[in-house]
């Protein structure tokens, strides 16, 4: 089989294509380098698999970042460098799904061999070349199976295996598998490839395996298309059509390049700031694969998703850092009160571990829980102190009322003897605060009434308590919701939820007052 393959010359077209790609690359190397895969991006990726490294030999530009991604279920350890410094970089142990990056900057050029320290048979090589001006002649792969690609190809007695264009040369090539004589029909969207002179259609130049060939142009079924039909001989490998105008904008090539460049820069920036963006890098790898296959719209979608994912990871990471700092401050403040909060401290420790490994969503959630655990301990202390204070206050009030009751009883006895009408009952309260009627009909001071309520309902939030005090202190124990918002600088939604909570506790009632809401304290 191999002898027949070589004898019939099947190897020539692939070799020509490989030579063309190497010649169009912005990097120039010796012949042995042409077998390597070239990456002209700022971030280049190597997959670590159970079978080895992919690609095993990679050519990059000076200043590029190379990322090894472990897609194997087992752990690996990458180490290597130039011949004079074979331990220049070392990844330590890479568990499954993790990655390691190294930047080849500062004029690092030449060959860098690396190995998997856990497997002696796994090795790879990176060739770093200096940056030079890029050759404007580039090959653009086309996914001809895409109905919107701008090219329709049908072949009798054979198959079309690939298609590519060189925009600067107005040239489009399709590669064939022609086991026998057949016919090839190609329909081009004029926006992709056309040939016109002075606004009129001009003939194309057609080459079969590099040799000039004739064709017949079919009547156009649409003004935006041109259709060519030509015979192909047995064993033909490629057909090239050269026109006078070509644009790959129809393919979405330029948009995909912009999206990929944006994603690479975003990922590089966040990675440089210590943010774990492994998921975004995985999407970028898929986008690069789609781009190489000529699926430019799909590549654009994946690249944009990678950018969004990296940005989201960065935002969540920053929020997690802020939440961790707040939780740590709350824990320390609670401990200064003599309260140990081991549960909150354990949560904060786990939060920091999650953050290190890139679990920013979980880290943010756990940090909030740690802060709440520390705050709840403080609230319990304040609640206990409040209840004790209220109890002591009531003892004082009871003694005073009892003393005054005895005095009033004595005065009543005197008046009875003197047949003098008694004055209306009243209760003196400290600070001159107005008396408040409780549900049982008794009169107590505002402060005492609120202390009673808060002692019975310790779960009421501090902010809600402040608002209740404010409303009770207003004329007739009433206040407009707008005044409450302005007094406490609350958004509309927050203020509404607050008074609804007080209403559920049966402490206030909400009354429509024109276009406004009047909040009336029920402790009147």
Automatic annotation (TrEMBL):
Transmembrane segments: none annotated. This is Uncharacterized protein. It comes from Nitrososphaera viennensis. The lineage of its organism: Archaea, Nitrososphaerota, Nitrososphaeria, Nitrososphaerales, Nitrososphaeraceae. InterPro entries: Cupredoxin, ET_Amicyanin, WH_DNA-bd_sf.
